[in-house]
Amino acid sequence: MLKMMTISAVAMLLTGGAAWAQSTSYFGPNGQYAGSARTYSNGFGSTTSYYAANGQYIGSGQTYSNGVGTTTSYYGANGQYRGRASRY
User: How many domains, the chain?
Assistant: First the structure.
């Protein structure tokens, strides 16, 4: 089981609305560092980039809301589509 710890949330202004970024670190059951995720949002949706423990980029997820639910599409490190998850 991975534990996660949110490191920081930074607010900034971008054209079209407020944006924020958040970094999350993941740790294994023995406390070893397992990787990280960085999420960026502009109020219309968000993109999360995933990194392995060695800092290598391993993929991303793009989340959008239509007011009824959200859909996240996942992509591998080379941009290949890996699937999606919807929540309503």
Answer: 1
Q: What is the CA radius of gyration of the chain?
A: 14
pTM assigned to the model: 0.72
Tokens of 45: 């949706």
Burial of 75 (0-12, 13-18, 19+ CB in 10 A): middle
Our CA angle for 29, 31, 33, nearest 5°, is: 105
* Domain that residue 81 falls in: 3-87
Give the separation between CA 23 and CA 37, rounded to whole angstroms. 6
Per-residue model confidence as pLDDT tens digits over 28-64: 999 999 999 999 998 789 999 999 999 999 999 999 9
Are the beta carbons of 48 and 37 closer than 8 angstroms? yes
Contact 25, 4 (CB under 8 A): yes
